[in-house]
Write a structure and sequence with these properties.
alpha/beta, Enolase-like, domain 1, TIM Barrel, 2 domains, eight-stranded parallel beta sheet, four-stranded antiparallel beta sheet, 33% helix, globular
Length: 341
């Protein structure tokens, strides 16, 4: 029998600059550092709660505190942990993701093998990651474009009355391919179609969540008319029918903090592939700890948005690396491949 002691600490992460999306702004994110201790080894994870899903730093800590510890005769069977967490309480998927992440990290360290090898990933290098711009005034985009100079793909948050001005101001400065994320900001089909037609002439390769998640019929119509692939974000937490989503979108954006587990995310990817859905792996604003786990999952993806740690003033550890051409690469070390700075 193995008994994992669970440790958790607030992880408050200041941002380099105020980050704004269609739902609000912030200058700091309030995450949770998760550690598990067993057999003299420590596994590390991170929870990044999201208010949209009624999660906070306090609620994540409360869930982990209620877990207390994890005891099992089968420490390498991650499905037992996932089941145990579901029995513990509904929701709180970021806390569940952080704990599963830490246990997986421990497993890799115990077996002295990188998780990308243990999980039989295609390799340790994945797609190119985007670099995200929060919503800002068009006149401030020059500074952001300069900041993003090392990264070949841009992700632009939209959902304002001046979306076209934002894109035009960026296009005056760079012709880098753009992924647009409206964060449910276009409320009508006409508005969404207008923006798609505008963006189609401006080297935009994917649009995330153009309309609110409840606009199911509208999204079905939009999918048939869109000349740019549409990616589900807020519409997928991992519990929805992928078949139904395939009638609304061309692909899905998987985030660990919504699915609640690396293992669950990989299952969703394999099921989505059977339906012909494109796969993107994204992140919340989180440190390199959680981004490394996201990068691991992204080894199976078509697109990656694993840049949360790049938006912070500092990171607590070394983890996922961004290669010169923008590709993500996990480190060839046991577990997640994290190292102390």
């Amino acid at each position: 029998m193995k008994k994992f002691e669970i440790e958790f600490l607030p992880l408050n992460l200041p941002l380099k600059r105020k980050f704004t999306i269609s739902r609000g702004s912030r200058v700091e994110v309030n995450n949770v550092l998760v550690k598990v201790h067993c057999d003299g080894l420590t596994g590390i994870g991170e929870a990044a709660p999201n208010h949209r899903y009624r999660e906070t730093q306090e609620s994540a800590i409360s869930f982990l505190d209620a877990m207390g510890y994890y005891e099992t005769e089968h420490p390498f069977d991650i499905s037992r942990l996932v089941d145990k967490m579901e029995e513990q309480a509904p929701g709180e998927y970021s806390a569940k993701a952080g704990l599963e992440m830490a246990i997986y990290d421990w497993i890799g360290k115990k077996l002295k093998i990188p998780l990308y090898k243990l999980l039989q990933a295609p390799g340790r290098t994945g797609p190119r990651t985007t670099y995200t711009f929060g919503i800002d005034k068009p006149e401030l985009m020059k500074e952001k474009v300069e900041e993003a100079h090392p990264y070949p793909l841009l992700k632009i948050k939209l959902g304002t009355d001046y979306d076209k001005d934002i894109i035009d101001s960026i296009r005056e400065l760079t012709d880098k391919p753009i992924l647009v994320d409206a964060n449910e900001g276009w409320k009508t089909t006409d508005r969404a179609l207008e923006m798609i037609q505008f963006l189609d002439r401006r080297n935009v390769f994917v649009i995330e969540q153009p309309m609110p998640s409840e606009c199911v019929e509208e999204m079905r119509e939009l999918r048939l008319k869109s000349t740019i692939p549409l990616m589900a974000d807020e519409s997928i937490t991992g519990k929805e029918s992928l078949k139904d989503l395939s009638t609304q979108f061309h692909g899905i954006n998987i985030k660990l903090m919504k699915t609640g587990a690396i293992s669950t995310s990989l299952r969703i990817i394999h099921e989505a592939r059977k339906l012909g859905l494109q796969i993107m792996v994204g992140c919340m604003i989180e440190s390199v700890i959680a981004d490394t786990a996201s990068a691991l999952v992204a080894l199976w993806a078509d697109y990656a948005d694993v840049d949360g740690h790049l938006l912070l003033t500092e990171n607590p550890m070394k983890g996922v690396e961004i290669l010169p051409q923008g590709h993500i690469q996990v480190r060839d070390l046991p577990g997640l491949g994290l190292e102390n700075i």
